[in-house]
Amino acid sequence: MIEPSLPVPSGAPPTAEPQGAAVLPVSPRTGRFLVLAGVFICAACGLVYELELVALASYLMGDSVTQASVVLSVMVFAMGVGSLLAKRLRCRAAAGFGAVEAALALVGGCSAMALYAGFVWGGETRALLVAFSLAIGVLIGAEVPLLMTLIQRIRRQDAGGAVADLFAADYVGALVGGLAFPFLLLPLLGQLTGALLTGAINAIAGGALVLWLFRRDLTRRSRWLLLGANLAVLGTLAALAAEVESFEKAARHAVYGADVRVALQTDVQEVVLTGGGQGPLNLYLDGRLRVSGGDEHRYHEALVHPAMRGPHARVLILGGGDGLAAREVLAHSGVRRVDLVELDAEVVELARSDAALSALNRQAFDDPRLHVVHDDAFRWLRSTGGGPRGPAYDVVISDLPDPGITESTKLYSQEFFGLAARALAPGGRLVVHAGSATRPRVFWTVDASVRAAGLSTVPYCAQGRLAGFAAGPDRALDSARAPRDWAFLLAARTPPALTLDDRPARRALTPAALHAGARAVERTRIQGLAPSTLVHPRYAHGVVPEG
């Protein structure tokens, strides 16, 4: 892919014909079309490699803004380096372009698998991410002067016209690659197979262009070397594609342990379910532990029961597709209706159908009081969630991923909490899962955002998070540094009372434990923090442990 910021090297191909006019097996017009078609295909492949690196790095390391910035900046820099290095190959542009495309197909096609293997077995991701961004960027940048030379050897034209033609083909190819990745390759093939297939297409397009259209420019030895190189690349990619399923299975076992019962890629995320037989059931979403059967009751009891003190006939749960928050809500006899807004329909179906998970949530989805809506929480609140256009809720429960995850930032913004407040009935309560008290800057930023939406807050936390069970951005940390608590905010239009309804049975949460958690989190208070908003998110660096 050619970046507009990269200048065409001075004294370069547009006006020079180092080898004279090319001898082609087709007319110059057809030859020129085929070169531009090659530019189109190579640009599409180049952008897919770029998006693969961003997506996989975001999945493995979190904080998609940082990962995208690293990949894009390193790759654009490397493209400039590659363009300069390729000046030495212009005298043998066809052979050079063929070698570059074979190398790009191999490196780009294998990049996702290598990055994932490094994370799983080597504990290293950032260095590999930079290395592959550099390598792919250098090879993409090397295409620029070589393609300019080849297209000029077919038919001379002014520099501006040649640049315009190449950029047009390049940008259209980038558009196709950019749309194919999220809507075709990722959902149908997954990240690993999608990258390998892209590498194969890249190798076939580059090899065919050189070995057929410009074969007269190659010596007999060069033709055999390029043919052998491309066959070796295609063979390697095919062999790896055949082993993707075994590779993914081995990687899942290395990450999640040997007791993986369910592993599926939904339209929203990767879902993995382990245990549930001899050991505790664990539910992972995009590699982050969201539910551990050994300690989830501490989290869900602390999330739900303080907010249920008072009127609770109508309850709204945002997230909570595992049904565990609904389990605690439905334990209260005064509940008449519960609306659960969960984006991922397949998580809800798993919570209904999996024997161990449905037993853990006590078949909550079979309760006629529970109504499920599959939608984005922000979008649903904005369109129908409350106020004059929607129902008013006595209790709103925000059971959403940690605020330190970039994808969750909008769900912890002042605007989101304003929409949640609009959904509250007079005297209604909002409870928010707000990370951990061990990350006070993130937690108190959530508090500032809730208060900026016009609500009064009472902070508290629940201890007993199992050692080594890391959720959200903590998965990059060792068990000694993982949080041992969950922190929450209880909010209402007037200062709410932090008390418990004694009727539902609770295994861990007591009034004494609740007030001890409130005192513990209060000791971490940071004054003067600004709220997080959609235009100024303040959680991006929540992945860095504080204190």
Automatic annotation (TrEMBL):
<feature type="transmembrane region" description="Helical">
    <location>
        <begin position="98"/>
        <end position="121"/>
    </location>
</feature>
<feature type="transmembrane region" description="Helical">
    <location>
        <begin position="33"/>
        <end position="59"/>
    </location>
</feature>
<keyword id="KW-0745">Spermidine biosynthesis</keyword>
<feature type="active site" description="Proton acceptor">
    <location>
        <position position="399"/>
    </location>
</feature>
<keyword id="KW-0620">Polyamine biosynthesis</keyword>
<feature type="transmembrane region" description="Helical">
    <location>
        <begin position="65"/>
        <end position="86"/>
    </location>
</feature>
<comment type="function">
    <text>Catalyzes the irreversible transfer of a propylamine group from the amino donor S-adenosylmethioninamine (decarboxy-AdoMet) to putrescine (1,4-diaminobutane) to yield spermidine.</text>
</comment>
<protein>
    <recommendedName>
        <fullName>Polyamine aminopropyltransferase</fullName>
        <ecNumber>2.5.1.16</ecNumber>
    </recommendedName>
</protein>
<comment type="similarity">
    <text>Belongs to the spermidine/spermine synthase family.</text>
</comment>
<dbReference type="Pfam" id="PF01564">
    <property type="entry name" value="Spermine_synth"/>
</dbReference>
<feature type="binding site">
    <location>
        <position position="300"/>
    </location>
    <ligand>
        <name>spermidine</name>
    </ligand>
</feature>
<keyword id="KW-1003">Cell membrane</keyword>
<feature type="transmembrane region" description="Helical">
    <location>
        <begin position="192"/>
        <end position="212"/>
    </location>
</feature>
<dbReference type="InterPro" id="IPR030374">
    <property type="entry name" value="PABS"/>
</dbReference>
<keyword id="KW-0808">Transferase</keyword>
<dbReference type="InterPro" id="IPR036259">
    <property type="entry name" value="MFS_trans_sf"/>
</dbReference>
<dbReference type="GO" id="GO:0004766">
    <property type="term" value="F:spermidine synthase activity"/>
</dbReference>
<feature type="binding site">
    <location>
        <position position="269"/>
    </location>
    <ligand>
        <name>S-methyl-5'-thioadenosine</name>
    </ligand>
</feature>
<feature type="binding site">
    <location>
        <position position="322"/>
    </location>
    <ligand>
        <name>spermidine</name>
    </ligand>
</feature>
<dbReference type="InterPro" id="IPR030373">
    <property type="entry name" value="PABS_CS"/>
</dbReference>
<dbReference type="InterPro" id="IPR001045">
    <property type="entry name" value="Spermi_synthase"/>
</dbReference>
<feature type="domain" description="PABS">
    <location>
        <begin position="239"/>
        <end position="480"/>
    </location>
</feature>
<feature type="transmembrane region" description="Helical">
    <location>
        <begin position="163"/>
        <end position="186"/>
    </location>
</feature>
<keyword id="KW-1133">Transmembrane helix</keyword>
<feature type="binding site">
    <location>
        <begin position="376"/>
        <end position="377"/>
    </location>
    <ligand>
        <name>S-methyl-5'-thioadenosine</name>
    </ligand>
</feature>
<keyword id="KW-0472">Membrane</keyword>
<keyword id="KW-0812">Transmembrane</keyword>
<feature type="binding site">
    <location>
        <position position="342"/>
    </location>
    <ligand>
        <name>S-methyl-5'-thioadenosine</name>
    </ligand>
</feature>
<feature type="transmembrane region" description="Helical">
    <location>
        <begin position="127"/>
        <end position="151"/>
    </location>
</feature>
<feature type="transmembrane region" description="Helical">
    <location>
        <begin position="224"/>
        <end position="242"/>
    </location>
</feature>
<comment type="pathway">
    <text>Amine and polyamine biosynthesis; spermidine biosynthesis; spermidine from putrescine: step 1/1.</text>
</comment>
<comment type="subunit">
    <text>Homodimer or homotetramer.</text>
</comment>
<dbReference type="InterPro" id="IPR029063">
    <property type="entry name" value="SAM-dependent_MTases_sf"/>
</dbReference>
